[in-house]
Amino acid sequence: MITDRADLARLEGWAKVTGTARYAGDHHPDGLAHAWPVPATIARGDLAAVRTEAALAVPGVLAVLTHHDAPALALPDDGDPTLAVLQSPRIAHRGQIVALVVAETPEDARAGAAAVECVYRPEPFDVVLTDHHQGLYTPAQANGGHPAVRERGDFDTAHGQAAVRIDRTYRIGPLHNHPMEPHTATAQWDGERLTVHDSSQGTNQVRTTLATLFGLAVTDVLVISEHVGGGFGSKGTTRPHAVLATMAARRVDRPVRLALPRDQLPALTGYRAPTVHRVRLGADDDGRITALAHEVTTRSSTVREFVEQAAVPARVMYHSPNSRTVHRVVRQDVPTPSWMRAPGEAPGMFALECAMDELAETCGLDPVELRIRNEPAVEPDSDRPFSSRHLVECLREGARRFDWSRRHADGPRREGRRLLGSGVAAATYPVLIAPSTAEVLARPDGTFLVRVNATDIGTGARTVLAAVAAETLAVPPDRVAVEIGRSDLPPAPLAGGSAGTASWGWAVHDACTGLRRALTDRGGTPLPSEGLRHRADTTDAVAAGGTFARHAFGAQFAEVEVDADTGEVRLRRLLGVFAAGRILNTRTARSQFTGAMIMGASMALLEHSTLDPGFGDHAERDLASYHVAVNADVPVVEAFWLDEHDEHLNPMGAKGIGELGIVGTAAAVVNAVRHACGVRVRELPIRPEALLPRMPHLPHLPHLPHLPHLPHLPG
Questions:
Q1: What is the DSSP-derived secondary structure letter of residue 485?
Q2: Could you say which residues of the chain have pLDDT below 70?
Q3: Would you say 352 and 279 are in contact if contact means Cβ atoms under 8 Å apart?
Q4: Among residues 540, 553, 437, 412, which one has the least CA distance to residue 487?
Q5: What CATH number does domain 24-124+177-268 carry, 3.40.190.10, 3.40.250.10, 3.30.530.20, 3.30.365.10?
Q6: Which of 107, 659, 683, 689 is the catalytic position?
Q7: Can 689 be counted among the known catalytic residues?
Q8: Would you tell me the crossing angle of helices 586-605 and 665-677 to the nearest 10 degrees?
């Protein structure tokens, strides 16, 4: 099933393990100063006064920027209002930056920030999301440009007449990206030219934004993101830290670095909004769906509308002649939500796949079989044919590898006080491809240099682009070097939406194809000293699009154990099988799939955030209180894939893989818990208090023998 066309180690691996890979905070220009933000301590109101005298008296403090004296920003009407930092005394949410202290050292800047005194005029605020909030409305569209509402057939009639009906509500609280590398920018002015080393998923977009905000020509701005320590969507747009560092550098006429403190990330860099999902399914006695509705309630901020597109996967997954998918949102006094890995698909598929499990249970069907019975012939909401869809094969191959038949032979198992169970869920993610340019240089020494403004956020972008170039040029990979992560390289889209390889790789493929043709035409003539270049632009090819619905699919299986005495859930095993087009580099692909599945397990079992209704901010703001999975939480994770050929994608036949692995994992874990202990959980994460009152009582274990008394230690 697996083809090893390429198994390349990361090109940047040696630099990372030796500490020579340079991130945004690893640049130390002469005269570097440091900045520290001052966050608002109210959730709504006005800044009546900001007193900076004590801060300016702190040794080492160079300046304090406030809305009174910060540079004015030229925010366009269609710009991101979250970037209008220090432009107004108005407070839209707790944690909004109200001042910025610049000092000689980070310690001086932090001390100065603590000395800034703010006087507020607070107002009543609204931060509690309820199912029937009076401010709920239906937006024009959800994230990604999807219509907020889609209906087919007559759902109400079909659901009312169905032999089997499911009507369930599922809930997921706020989730936070928390990349290992904090959001950091090092900004330096040279006259009217600006250079920013930024922790970003796309330097082109940051360059354009900074040029607009500061009234600069785009050619006078250089943004560099050579290495990025994770982002998961939180670095997919320009964030306030880059704007603030640029402001501060202009104010003190020195290079300035701003690394956001981790406890400020939830308020300033986006997060996954909480979602409430009502899923209704109607089916005949054989489990074939006749009616499907997925209605999502979520929230955004008063600053900017962002609507998690969580009902969209229900438009893709299963056959149903009658369908309703709806998004509703309320604007509240909270930080602005944004992208988090697999936005829409991750929370939406949790609800849908749990509901499918409940339907299978009600119908007395195997959960794998139920999904196979409802396989659509075409994309349900568009009637477009799929470019490729091998979900059924993923389910069957996954069941074989996972030994799914044992689930029926043994039923739920018990080992002492541990209850064991297994679950399954399906996954999908759209194939997204954006226009890109790339350039390749043939050098006289027989080596090649690929230049494209891709960004490697830890996914191995350099490595897979080298593999694409090497195959297209028909040369060994060690003869190909790759230059990425600078806004002065050939323009390319950001690293997001699992679109990077499909977009950048297409341009690299075309550039290498053109260069190879040019080299052939030379007939062996020696290259000039400057080498031979070829550039490609995929704008027209991507715009041509196609008539096919393009998606990747997968199936995830989970085995868990539930402690009957404590309600603690432990993951024993995760297995995923995916149909994601051609896998271009097996080593980095497996890393992406397993990493995503771990993130999905973390979502199911650990990640939890509370918006404090009394203070208006997220209570869990660091990695001590916001728990994510570590090695001990994921003992066995296996990733496999089908050798899928799809001629309707790009020249490589590649689909995105980075987000697909997370999508079904949480539901697979929840479904396994139900199988283990009989308790259906409909709110994440799974907590002992949700299980214990509803779990079967087991006989008590025998008492341990009494230990002998030990003598008291002196003192």
A1: S
A2: 1-5, 697-715
A3: yes
A4: 437
A5: 3.30.365.10
A6: 659
A7: no
A8: 50
